[in-house]
Amino acid sequence: MTAGSEEVEAFDAFYAATAKRLVATVYAMTGDLGEAEDAVQEAYVRAWQRWDKVSGSGDPLPWVRTVAVRLSISTWRRTRGRLRAHFRHGVPADVPGLSEDRVALMGALEELNRDQRQAVVLHHMLGLPVEEVARETGASNGAVRTRLHRARRILGERLADTPAVTGRQVTRNAAAGRTAAAGRAEAERKGRVRHG
Q1: Which is nearest to 128 in space by CA: 69, 45, 43, 40?
Q2: pTM given for the model
Q3: Whether the Cβ atoms of residue 26 and residue 68 lie closer than 8 Å to each other
Q4: Tell me, what DSSP letter sits at residue 97?
Q5: Residue-wise pLDDT tens digits, 66-77
Q6: What's the rounded Cα separation, in Å, for the pair 153 and 94?
Q7: With contact defined as beta carbons under 8 Å apart, do 159 and 107 qualify?
Q8: How far apart (Å, rounded) are the C-alpha atoms in residues 162 and 28?
């Protein structure tokens, strides 16, 4: 077996073991599956072009993940207008719906800023320690901990499973709406009586 074929086999094995999860990771960070797939594909192409360096320095996954995340962020910035148009016109009718849990999670992740979202995905979804998240994002350990703390608070508020509270809130809001409408009607009636 030649050295070239060994490199091909090593890269193929690396790709097969990591690609699917990396797409899920970048998707969780960006919220756009197509962009995540494109960014990950490009990151693997770049890794293959430098495979001897990338694989020679230990685990190549952090390098590929960093490249994929940076590519997806760059692409997102360039296509912001296209995304706005998509959301303005809605999803095509033939696209199957997502589960409520996935919609809730992606919606909650969208409320985080980019740094918080990246920290949450790397730490909680991939299980990377704070130190490695800091290394990959170029932030200090303290900054990563702060981002995680703030993100957990936002996600906790957004993802709180409180259907009873939601039901009470809906009932209260409906009652308040009825009370306000009755008050307006009463004020109008009195106004007509005085002026009429």
Answers
A1: 69
A2: 0.54
A3: yes
A4: P
A5: 999 888 876 555
A6: 36
A7: no
A8: 24
